[in-house]
Structure prediction request, 911 residues.
Amino acid sequence: MALAQASHIQTFMNWLRELLTGDGRTLKIRGGLTLPRNKPGLPVDNNIVSLNVPEHIVIPLLDYHHKPVTPCVRTGQSVSTGDKLAPGIIASTGGTVLTIEDRPVIHPSSLLAPCVVIATRSEQINQQPVHCALDVPSIARIALCGVRGLGGAGFATATKLERSAPLGQPIDTLIINAVECEPGISCDESLLICEATSVVRAMIVMMELTACKRCVLAIENDKLLALAALKQAMQQLSTLSKNIDVQLLAPIYPSGAERPLIERVTHIRLQEGRRPVDQGVVCINVATALAASQAQEGYPLVSRIITVAGEQAVNAVNVRVLFGTPVRNVLEQTGNLQNIKLSRVRVGGPLSGFDLNNLDTPVTATTNCISIEAPLVTNSPDPCIRCDACSEVCPVDLLPQQLYWYAQQDDLDKSTHYGLNQCIECGCCDVVCPSRIPLTQTFRYARSALQEQTQAKQRATDAEQRYQLREQRLSAKAAASEAQRKMAKTTLTQGNDPIAAALARAKQRRNNPDSDNPA
Amino acid sequence: MNQLALDTHGLTQSPRTIGAIMGLVMLALVPGTIAYAWAIDSRVLVNIILAVVVAVCIEAILLALRGRSAKPAWTDGSIALAAWLLALCVPPSLPLWQLLIGVFIMSAIGKHLFGGLGHNPFNPAMVAYAVLIVSFPVTMTDWNYATSTQASQSTNTLSNSTSPDTSHAHTGYVSNRMQWDGLTGATPLDRLRYLQSTYRSSSQAIPSQTPAEQSVLSSTQAARLIMQSPWLWVNLGWFIGGMYLLFLKVISWHIPVAVLSTIAILYLLTGLFSTVPTLPVLPALLSGALMIGAFFIATDPVSAAAGKSGKLIYGSGIGILTFVIREYSVYPEGFAFAVLLMNICVPLIDHLTVSVHRQRRLPQETTATLSPEVIRRSEPESKTDSQVSRRS
Prediction:
């Protein structure tokens, strides 16, 4: 359906559908908050400024699970844009590898992780394709160009798409996620305003790539500028874009998160531990879709749009930043570095983000927003009075206050039972808590503890497996030599005993000394 | 945990603090309290003020003794609210020293023995009430308030037909001490209990009754007992306050609705099947401590069950127990004990409702995710993992 008829009628129809349809679908939006729309820094003249490339960039060698990966470059090696640095990680610009060492990366607990430091060659972000353009879109190209989810988690897009292919799981719905309900963040909106036509083209490419039956662009109904740009773009490309459904959603945070969004768009409630693709749904961020389609033309994913905003931001703006640029450099180039000591720099939005302790941490694919906020007035939280305000706003139906109770006690089993792994860390519960308990922070901590525990368990299992394999190997070896020995023994006992034969020969020699030199 | 700080950046309206929530609940208590002071006994105001002031002092001292900041005693308002509720629950004529003992028990045993605000498994006000009614049964059941009612006088003349001796045997201490005249000030439920017991004893003593004797107590009369009592105004006051809390979403509807609907259904059933005349539904809901209990006491979040289904179970449990205590025990009203008994069940309810909650979300396809095919599918991943770890 074209956007022309989409606006009010469709909102109403959606509402009616949500109200009326039954058949095992969810009817109402669970939890969530309606937050003020506070989006400074939208582009003014349809132009997003690209920041200059700093002298040194830092690329963390971490995969989606924050596990270190093995680099495939050496110190001193010269790399160019799009070169592979490690599995799934590409160089965002050309230069020389200075060193590979542990550096702070963007992480709630300012973790150190192995990073490749590159001394850059050019001042500008590379705008040239580095691979040839493809006629038929391919998933392999997406992997080659290092496309990762630009929405939140940074999952490798190629892997996401591949998951559907080999299992023969047909994709029913492709959701392009342009929902950004969190106040302050406006990078996807800026992208839509400035590059609506490319986005619509990208959606068509993605439809071709996933062979989906239906493609839905989910967007909030209060993004007026973006909607206007989109409408124009879809009218321009009306022949191609007629299969794209635009679904307008009421701006309820956190609709932009994958699971709540899928629930709102398709009315499918994803069960615990199941991936969207199991239900025939693929959900891709709008910027990721654009990057994946540009990958088909040969452009590697080396930069993203970042919102610099916040209460104390001097200059709220959306800018294109090369991956690996230190946060300090971004603040400097956007003119926000004055008095930064007096403020608090936060990565991600005001609700879902976290404070950054070190400004030299590099920007990655998942950094959608850098917000500069007033320093915290530390208030120790009051005790929980079990008022259940948190469970009312939880978008994934958890009982945060109960979960908090166990997470605080490090009771990880019980926390898992209460759904720790399903927490999407949206921060809604923090906002409504009358006791000002930092719930999300506690859950994040418990989750990392759980992850550590799982990894330790995995390591132990691996070690055990290796030990068992070794034991097997050794026993097999022992058994083989034993068998050989046995065979030798049997040949000994059966008739032609070599010792007896030798003795007989010696005896014969003694008896007939003449026949010493046999002919 | 204290180093972890939270911020919401003034993005949203800052959430209601605990103090604000408690303040709203106290505000909602005002209409009922005014009705109480006006229609029943103005001494209640003295009790409330005294209880609140002493409770805040005791709370501050206890907090200081526990090495905490004493400030929450007057900022979070929880103890003031509990003291207010306790003062409303006890008879206005209760000697002040007994009330103060109650206040001390409420703060010390009901709350701080368990770890203070948020950790008490029992409703502190109800703990104090239970201790008081067991320790001082005479003064705690002496509702000898100033105003006497038309209804009580009318029933008084009616019940003159039965002998006072039987009442002693069957109403326990409720009317033990009270001489015949003292009953003029009893609460409607006390009176109903008395009338029911005399009804029962008379029907046992004289199996062949005359129709005139049967009409000693009818359910319309029981209803009149409630509806013509000045307590009606007080209960309407609690109801208005409760509606205000629901409107402000300070409390959720689950507990009050569960309590009141359970009581209503049980009274409906007994009205149909019981041999002893009992209350019709509407007077039953407006009698005793039900209104203040359902809206103000059972909804105490700390000691109540969490989650929607948990709250419904908790509320209906309170309803059933209140009904059972009212109808089959020596106490004319059993809300406090019902709340305490259900408080004991809260961990169990929480545990069970979470399991239900999780089962609903867990797929039936759990078996499918563990099928050999899927395991085989996940094998390559684990293999690469082990390869990585071996290499590193």
